[in-house]
Amino acid sequence: MKRIYVNEDWCLGCHLCEYYCTFANSGLESMAYALKGKPLSPRIQVEEEGEIHFAVSCRHCDNPVCVKSCITGALSVEDNVIHCDTNKCVGCYTCIMACPYGCIMPATSGVIQKCELCTNNAHQKPLCVQGCPNEAIVFEER
Amino acid sequence: MPLNYIFPEFEVVRNADQCVACRACERQCANEVHHYSEEYGRMIADNSKCVDCQRCVTICPTHALKIVKSDNTFRENGNWSAQTIKEIYRQADSGGALLSSMGNPQNYPVYWDKILINASQVTNPSIDPLREPMETRVFLGKKPSTITRDENGELVTKRPPRLELSVPIMFSAMSYGSISYNAHASLARAAKELGIYYNTGEGGLHEDFYCYGPNTIVQVASGRFGVHKDYLNAGAGIEIKIGQGAKPGIGGHLPGKKVNEDVSHTRMIPMGSDAISPAPHHDIYSIEDLRQLIYSLKEATAYQKPVIVKIAAVHNVAAIASGIARSGADIIAIDGYRGGTGAAPTRIRDNVGIPIELALAAVDARLREEGIRNEVSIVVGGSIRSSADVVKAIALGADACYIASSALMALGCHLCRSCQEGKCNWGIATQRPDLVKRLNPNVGSKRLVNLITAWRHEIMEMMGGMGINSIEVLKGNRMMLRGIGLNEKELEILGIKHAGE
């Protein structure tokens, strides 16, 4: 299955993926309007120290501990994509504690948010991949 | 603080409605133009540091940025241009010779733009390259002038070594040091995929790139950096660099700060030491000396590799080329005065040398007159900007073209002409690891392959239009060219008729 992979050799730490992600999930048409003066809430985050940078987003694990840990059944695997039903999520954040990659984060609404490979928004193909200036983030079968 | 007389040349214009303060511009500008001001709560810019490399403009996700030329004006003066005045201020400030990079930007005539290409109508059919075969392959090297047979009457088919190109374009010399590891990786990979050659320049061949040897020209320049037997044998051909179009008559200087561990290892010089290429080869003071070096190199490579001699286009280029053709070289590369560089004294770059179009026409004509044109192939460079320039060069008598500036532009170069600063925001002319990684060779090689593939299509279209289906037929076919707006003398040197004739 196609997943998002990041090659740290080419990640420049420009953080654009975080902005593209926030925009993609804003539901708005204009990037400037979606982001201007608003808090950034990306589902992909650049980890960095010194000259090393790499973006991290949900790995869509084969045996996802977040799904196992979910107390309400809000997290589920659909077509190999880990999906969150925000109507069921109660914001207990157990999944945030459980995720070994730190890829789940609280949403501004109080529940959780995570990368769903842009299948849950209008973009369909991950916008972080399309926006990465150095092809450090790729969406491919491995 | 003493007054700085030079007003910032460019202004960063930021559309406040569009800017989301993502700070990508700040992170990506090695010149530290942009920064986020907590006081103002928005991005601000220091225009004085901007070199107009367009990196921030390109990377801005909301297209909030543009760079414009400052309209601050000195009092207008037909004799003292703003550029000239600024250069005087700069020199009065620094006391140094002015340095510049990339090609001569002055407003001299571009002869390519004064030459038009023919097309067939009625009496001879044009050819559609999409429907009919079209040959763009060329071979570079000596062409035998006679057919020889051995004692049994069998044809002797052993030929002098040659280079085979799928399209008459090669990436010209840019050293590892002047450009980055990733730029070299992009060129090498693209050359391999395209079936052409790239050139190491004078900085040796990085050990990682020996695998691209069959598509590599290895250069031997006056500094002899990184030259050893394995290096010579690694390439498909060897180039002796006598001169460079951007700076004829002078050597090179790679600052010590660019000589990092890798560059030092490849060049075989101590880390951090300046790599200085002398102006002349200290063992070449005549055609006979050149012949000795050519044959030393041929000897070292068992006569398996063609030897290219690269010279800058200067006043007596035809006579010099004639000497080179007689010295045993297989290929002559001529670099015109528009040729690029990683750094050259401004006065040399802008005032020395001659246009490649005239040099090519003169050399081709001279070698024909002397009956030695088949002894050498001619490769020309120095601002080949498009496939049309390639077609015109071939018709003027070139066997192939060298491109470098256009190849770098494919990799992201925006001709900001600040290579000498070593802070290339596009990861090309720099050795800073954080900047070098901006050029991903996966992306770079793809873009180079795209460029040459596109040019090849266009070359075939133009050939087809002329009713020519093999590039060999176009070679030296000056009847396919007409001049426009050229005087008698220019037409005479170019060996072409005026449009309408």
Walk me through this protein's architecture.
- The complex is a heterodimer of chains A (about 140) and B (about 500).
- Chain A has about 140 residues and is α+β, with helices and mostly antiparallel strands.
- Chain A has two domains: about 80 residues, Alpha-Beta Plaits; about 55 residues, Alpha-Beta Plaits.
- Chain A contains five helices and eight strands, in the order E-H-H-E-E-H-E-E-H-E-E-H-E.
- A two-stranded antiparallel sheet of chain A has the order 1-8.
- In chain A, a hairpin with a 2-residue loop joins strand 4 and strand 5.
- Chain A is globular, with a radius of gyration of 15 Å.
- Chain A starts with a strand and ends with a strand.
- The model of chain A has no long low-confidence stretch (mean pLDDT about 95).
- Chain B is an alpha/beta fold and about 500 residues long.
- Chain B has two domains: about 90 residues, Alpha-Beta Plaits (2-Layer Sandwich), CATH 3.30.70.20; about 325 residues, Alpha-Beta Barrel (TIM Barrel), CATH 3.20.20.
- In chain B, about 30% of the residues lie in helices and about 15% in strands.
- Chain B is built from 16 helices and 21 strands.
- Chain B has an eight-stranded parallel β-sheet.
- In chain B, strand 2 and strand 3 form a beta hairpin.
- In chain B, helix 4 crosses helix 14.
- The relative contact order of chain B is 0.15.
- The mean pLDDT of chain B is about 95.
- The chains are: A alpha+beta (about 140), B alpha/beta (about 500).
- At the A-B interface, helix 1 and helix 2 of A face helix 1 of B.
